[in-house]
Amino acid sequence: MYGPTAQRSFIQKASTSELNKGLEKLVAHEAHVGAVCNVSFDIHEGEIFVIMGLSGSGKSTIVRCLSRLVEPTAGKVLFDGKDLLKASGSEMIEIRRHKMGMVFQNFGLMPHLNVINNVAFPLRLQGIGRLERENRAREIIKLVGLEGRETSFPRELSGGQQQRVGIARSLAVEPEIWFLDEPFSSLDPLIRSQMQEEFVRLQKLLNKTIVFITHDFLEAIKLADRIAIMKEGRIVQIGTPADVVMKPVDSYVTKFTKDVPRVKIIRAKDCMETSGLSDISKDSIKVKSDATLEEIIHKLANTKKECCVLNSEGKIIGRISAETVVDALAAGDSR
Amino acid sequence: MTETTPNDLIDLEVSKDTWPKSMLAWIFLGIVSIILFAIRSDFGWIVSFPEKWVLPFAEWINLFMNWFIDANKAAFRFFAKVLTFPMDALRTSLIWLPWPAVLIAFCATAHSAGGWRLMIFTLSAFGYILVFGYWVPTMATLALVFLSVPLSVLIGLFIGVATFASHRTERLVMPMLDVMQTFPTFAYLIPILFLMGFGPVVGLVASAIYAMPPMVRNVVLGLRRVAPEVVESGVMSGATPLQLLWTVRLPAAMPTIMIGINQSTMAAFSMIIIASVIGGSADIGWEVLSAMRKAAFGQSFLAGIVIALMAMVMDRISRGFALRHTLAHNGPESFITRNQLIISVLCLMIVFIVLAQFFQSLKEFPEVWVINPARYLNDAVDYVISEYSGILDAIKNSFLIYFLLPIRLGLENSVKPFTWGFELNNTFIAYYLTLCIAVAASLWRLWGWHAVVGIVIIAVFYYYGTTGLPWPLFIAFVTLLAFQVAGFNLAVFAFLGLIFMLLSGFWPQVMRSVYLCGAAVFFAFSLGFLFGICAAMNDRFSVFIRPINDTLQTMPLFVFLIPVIMFFQIGDFPAMLAIIMYAIVPAIRYTEHGIRNINPSTLEAAEAQGCTKIQKLFHVQLPLALPEIMLGLNQTIIFSLAMLVIAALVGTKGLGQSVYVALSSGNVGNGIIAGLSIAIIAMIADKIIQAWANKKKKELGLI
Fold first, then answer.
1. Contact B341/B104 with Cβ under 8 angstroms?
2. Structurally, how many domains does chain B consist of?
3. Is A153 part of the contact surface with chain B (CB cutoff 8 Å)?
4. Which of A97, A108, A114 minimises the CB distance to B232?
């Protein structure tokens, strides 16, 4: 909430319903802009949580509230069971030094430091000795594939390379939670998809808890474990990519899902039928539960029969036919 | 009107029944002025403000200053003493150092700032200083620079950071910077002279104070320009507020801060030269002035070149450091490899210091090697003056008769048989009126009623002269202009400022200054505007004129007086020339910059529609560049006011002279009031034009 009396109006009000009522009133009043209102969600350990919305929808404000770069007018941010908004300045500095990492849309690199010093910067702030921090920085630079550019300055690097430095810097402190604020939005399309693949590779390696902000629905679908779609400071829908695509809550979400290549998003487990498993013949073709429809579709075309769906332990958990696939592809589409 | 385009129709409809209020105000002012002019012979106080109404501001200030000085003299004298030690030490050691050692130090610095070319330039500049025998006074001046620049940089950095960090400080500091930067250099010296007594330490303190505002401004600007994401990434890396300042904000703002150091250095140097003129200390400014007083133009010219060369060397070196990219440190290196250059330079210097103990010629530049061509230069100047005195006089006189005198006294008092060749008669007035009406009518077709008001004002000025204008009219005119362009607040400021000048009894001097500055600004801006257009249209001309501009801009103001005195002696005309030389630069620069920085796609669109080059200039480039060009006019006015006080040295009357007289007679009150008056004029002009340019930029969608 931005505005002249924002602090005064909200800081004391405890009950949520009262808060919401006040919010509506103030937003209606022109002096205040509710950047983010009444938004609440959980982020699970080790998942990629993508917040997707168009510009001005409040997604950047949310991630800045989580890291307290922006002070929320009212609310709670719970991290390891502790309310970050109640943390003192020095506690917050400690948390940022050891538990949080953040990547910025326009990289936010220190223009006066070269690559290795940029990456080692958070370590330097902690007072770690030069040799130790440079060794650590070298390791991470290797991890993000920037070996050989250690002594270059940001202005000498391409956008993609600069963002690799930004990623490396945010990883230098081995954070528990990793914020990425539109990290790939200012890159060219080709570089962007390359960086997305890099990102997936890194996450497989590191398995961090991630909050990822983007305005690109396809990017969100591609990377997310779960997506929150935002509009005008509110969350419209939270769910897995398949949830969002197959069961969009309103026409706003539908607009995004229209052009999505559903065969790449929806997986066998999302559309399989779980009843009548005993009827299935033993010699039918088997597919994995997390295979995308794209991978299944040619098998179905070949057999013209049902396939059985196996979970990761090899147990049959469902069945899938050409018909179910067609239903799934048409679901949630009002056309 | 035979043809009416739809556009004209709309204009006509609007103006038919509802005349713009702002226009009515000007018509009202016109009627008032007619009445005022009609009754002014009966009521003399309308033109010349009566002495008995004057409030003794100056005496009040003097009383306060006397009390303040009595109370604090000891402290200030002590402070001056404390400052004298490092200054004397630095001065003696610079003079004691063998000249080759100093030369090596400077060349090495120049090389690391700007490579071989700058080093060779520095070498030849110092060669000139040596060969023409100005080494010792130059070192004395440098000692002051080396002490005052770090002082003002450190204090400026501190104030800049404080200003950035707190809004309350900002509201306090920013207006003070405005006053400090428009307060004339001489006027600075007066209170400092009183508090600290004579001597070079006055120059030191004055220059440290004078050089601070550009540093503060650049620090604030640099800190503000640091990208928000860079700051956020610093916060997210876990920086404490202090770490954020030292490791993120200040280093990221460094390029802008370095430009501040460059500007500070140049301001300090300029002030030191002026202070030495007053203080009479044995440095290079004094050399110039004493030679000038003896009418030894050869010497003063040679010494003036030393000042110019030093200014250029210092500017290039400090700018070189500002533009240089930070060097990469590739991993841990040993102390010696990192400081190789410094160590080898120090070694070389020590070698020369040791050698100098055995060879006198290394210790002091041998007298026999010094050339002194001043006599030949004097002869050459004499020859030129005697040979071309007819032409020089003709130029000077025609400017005086047809331009300067009418602006000062008005056509009504300056058209005389011995000037224009005839008595002012009704036929002449009729011609004048017809001409004005014709011009006004043609401009009305082009730019509407604003242009007509402008023409009427110029015509009135030219006919009655600045000194013949009734003061209520002038005050009303400025206040109305300020109100319409920049709003109520500025109108109040302008009104109160002008009333202050009126009540303090400086009105005649104010009008005298308005006249000289107005005349100089008119020429500087018109010429600069034309040059600027040429530079924008022609790359070769632009390349040619840029180094000239750079040089003019780095010169300490004092230097401009030397050539004009040489050829035109003293008076308003040489003063005007000196002001023009200095104030023309921003007019050229802003015009060129404004025209060249127009969005290229707009120009492409104009070309695609079949604009000729001239059409493009008049219909696209100039209208779009107008706000920027007006900012150039703004700078021209401020520059010319700064030069006004210096020009008082060539015998002009007005506020500059008042400051100068106050300085030599020790009248603090008068000095401060005259200085403040100049600052107020500058600020009013500055705020009006800035407001106009911003409004225009918004209209054009440029910001």
1. no
2. 2
3. yes
4. A108
Closest by CA position to B376, among listed B368, B384, B387, B367: B384
Neighbours of B64 (CB within 10 A): 12
Q: What is the mean pLDDT of residues A284-296?
A: 80
**In contact, B143 and B200? CB cutoff 8 Å:** no
Tell me, yes or no, whether B577 lies in a domain.
yes
* φ/ψ of residue B357, rounded to 5: -65, -20
Residues of chain A positioned with their CB less than 8 A from the CB of B331: 134
CB B490 within 8 A of CB B553: no
Position B280 scores a pLDDT of 58
Helix (H) or strand (E) holding A61: helix A59-66
- Domain hosting residue B211, numbered range: 142-281+288-302
Mutate to test the interface with B, among A61, A121, A130 (most CBs of B within 10 A): A121
ipTM above 0.85, yes or no: no
Residue B679 falls inside a structural domain: yes
Which residue in A109, A110, A119, A171 has the most chain B C-beta atoms within 10 A of its own C-beta, making it the best mutation to test that interface? Answer: A110
* 10-residue averages of pLDDT along chain B (703 residues): 42 50 83 82 78 83 86 84 87 86 89 88 92 88 90 94 91 87 80 78 86 92 92 91 91 89 89 75 80 79 87 88 61 61 83 80 76 79 83 86 83 78 82 89 83 85 82 89 89 93 89 90 94 92 88 82 82 90 92 90 86 86 89 91 86 85 84 90 91 87 74
Q: What is the CATH number of the domain that holds B227?
A: 1.10.3720.10
Residues in chain A closer than 8 A to B251 (CB atoms): 110, 112-113
Q: Which of A96, A111, A131 sits opposite B238 (nearest CB)?
A: A96
- State the pLDDT at residue B226: 92
Tokens in use for A35?
Answer: 């950047």
Question: pLDDT tens, A115-133?
Answer: 999 999 999 999 898 899 9
Judged by a CB distance cut-off of 8 A, whether residue A126 touches chain B is: yes
Residue A266 and residue A287 in contact, taking contact as beta carbons nearer than 8 Å: no
CB contact under 8 A, A98 and B232: no
Beta bridge partners of A319: A273, A308
In a domain, B307, yes or no: no
Rounded alpha-carbon distances, angstroms, from residue B701 to B254, B609, B671: 31, 21, 44
B 210-229: CB under 8 A from A: 227, 229
Smallest Cβ–Cβ distance between A102 and the set B233, B243, B252 belongs to B233
Non-local (6+) Cβ contacts of A108 within 8 A are A166, B227, B229, B230, B232, B233
pLDDT digits (tens, 9 = 90+) for A210-225: 999 999 998 998 899 9
Is B321 among the domain residues? Answer: no
| Pairs of CB atoms within 8 A across A/B | 79
Q: Which backbone phi and psi does A29 adopt, to 5 degrees?
A: -75, 135
B631 contacts chain A (CB < 8 A): no
Token representation of residue B420 = 């224009």
DSSP code at position B238: T
